[in-house]
Amino acid sequence: QVQLVESGGGLVQAGGSLRLSCAASGRTFSRYNMGWFRQAPGKEREFVAAISWTGSSTYYADSVKGRSTISRDNAKNTVYLQMNSLKPEDTAVYYCAAGRLTTQVLGDYDYWGQGTQVTVSS
Questions:
Q1: Residue predicted with more confidence, 86 or 27
Q2: Which of 17, 33, 51, 77 is 20 to 30 A (C-alpha) from 99?
Q3: Is 37 within 8 Å of 98 (Cβ atoms)?
Q4: Contact of 12 with 82, CB cutoff 8 Å
């Protein structure tokens, strides 16, 4: 069992940066691949980024590639999403998730956090 708590969201102007954190509880965090997803009002939840359990492999949605970096610190049971050059279309609730696979597919993730709101003003 893994519990996930996101933090770091907020209101930022376009062009700004935010660093999201996802703290996990449970002894087996390091065995899970981690992902970040987001959901904007009226839209489906979509993949943002994922990282393998070792941290050696990372994947990004085209919409954030080059502007975002996913990383993890297994000693701190935490995964991060650094987002730069933020755009109004990045406005969404951001969720972290833990799963056995490093994929872009929501259904492949077993555990989800409650989400943190990111709002980017123009």
A1: 86
A2: 17
A3: no
A4: no
For the sheet with 68-73, list strands across it: 3-7, 18-25, 78-83, 68-73
Q: What is the pLDDT of residues 21-67, one digit of tens each?
A: 999 997 688 889 999 999 999 999 999 999 999 999 999 999 999 99
Q: Which two tokens stand for residue 110?
A: 């077993």
Tell me the helix, strand and coil percentages in the chain, rounded to 5: 5, 50, 40
Q: d(Cα 6, Cα 8) in Å, to the nearest integer?
A: 7
Q: Which of these, 59, 61, 56, 60, lies nearest to 74 by C-alpha position?
A: 56
- Rg (Cα) of the chain, in Å, rounded? 13
The pair of three-digit structure tokens given for residue 113, joined into one six-digit string:
């956090």
Tokens read off for 62 = 């085209």
